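WARN no homologs supplied; continuing
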Amino acid sequence: MTRAPTTTHNTPHRKAPAAVTPWHLRAARRRLQQGGILAYPTEAVYGLGCDPLNAAAVLRLLELKQRSVDAGLILIAADFVQLERFVQPLSSALRRRVLASWPGPVTWLLPARPEVPAWLRGAHATLAVRVTAHAGSRALCRAFGGALISTSANPRGRPPARTALQVRRYFGDALAILPGPLGTGARPSEIRDAVTGETLRKG
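OK structure emitted
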């Protein structure tokens, strides 16, 4: 009896994404510290990130996305400590509710500190923040030493990139790409307003 082949011309083998290494993380940290923009895998799609306090980098990122500065941006972090400099102190009840959802794919709109720049919060008094459960994104935030911008890697009106190749097709060589697999999420993170309790986007 002959054994059937394990692959055919109709089912090409797909190479798994390379794992992120300490070398990749050091290179990414240097790029971010120098004002560069980085694409990186998150829970469900590739994100675009940069140093949130570097105005020139943020404005370049918004230009790549064709996104208005008034819309505001999401910050991700490895833990809540990395976000505390950006948001107002939370009541005990609200803190428990927010932290119970983290690390995880839930983005909260929290009252922003007065000094948070307009290029982050847009035309809002709140700031969108998340402690991510994605291992690669958490490692990136730890390597950088703080929170990072996280907005889906796509120009306005195009679907979010789910592969490094799609990121490159959208943006060419305008940014670096951190390797690694996406998480298991099917959609971008859920967004909840901590003040009103409203769910603005379902995950």
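Residues 22-201 form a domain with the DHBP synthase fold (CATH 3.90.870.10).
OK
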